[in-house]
Amino acid sequence: MPKRRSVKSADDRPADAHVRARDYLGQPDVDRLLVASKKSRYGVRDHLLILMMFRHGLRVSETIALRRQDVDLAQSRVWIARLKNGLSVEQPVAGDELRAIKRWLARREDALPWLFVSERKKPLTRQAVNYIVGTAGSRAGLGHVHPHMLRHSCGFALANKGRDLRLIQDYLGHRDPRHTAHYTRTAAHRFDDLW
């Protein structure tokens, strides 16, 4: 006789099942994380890695796939090849980020194609990125910080600046607006002039 699968009704869920833990950093925390990242052995690289993950809402796989040729220093642009069937786009690079890229490339003595490399002259691994971000989070006194928090932090930062849903959706490469909607629904600026 086949086993019956138990099905939970909506009444079986806790009353606060819709509540989501805060899985992003506010701008002051991102700033602390960036300062802490500079204090590592490879501070120039680690600072750039965290800055780009935040500014462009990069997933770990998108970050480690970045190549030197994706960065156009003359035009201050970077090509972001999105994964998960996302929308790949060219994005602007701000002045501080451009300077960080130039600092990192000036330290490199190799001609390897990847933007982020390890001390063994290999592309960074997912584990290495997790370690870099986690260590910077601990050093900054932020507790457990993981790379995907930087992607969420990007979405919430853009929403808090008043950017519309469609723009954030395209910037993060989401095909489905439902993946972007929670950033704009909880944006603090929406409630500024209520009282």
From TrEMBL:
| Pfam families (UniProt xref) | Phage_integrase
**Natural source organism:** Paracoccus alcaliphilus
Q: Could you identify this protein by its name?
A: Type 1 fimbriae regulatory protein FimB
Cross-referenced PANTHER family? PHAGE INTEGRASE-RELATED (PTHR30349), TYPE 1 FIMBRIAE REGULATORY PROTEIN FIMB-RELATED (PTHR30349:SF62)
Q: Which family does it belong to?
A: Belongs to the 'phage' integrase family.
Q: Which PROSITE patterns match?
A: TYR_RECOMBINASE (PS51898)
Alphabetized UniProt keyword annotations: DNA integration, DNA recombination, Fimbrium biogenesis, Transcription, Transcription regulation
Does the record's keyword annotation contain Transcription?
A: yes
According to the UniProt entry, its GO molecular function terms are:
DNA binding
Q: Has UniProt tagged this entry with the keyword Phosphoprotein? A: no
Residue intervals of the Tyr recombinase domain = 20-195
Checking InterPro entries in the record gives: DNA_brk_join_enz, Integrase-like_cat_sf, Integrase_catalytic, Tyrosine_recombinase_XerCD
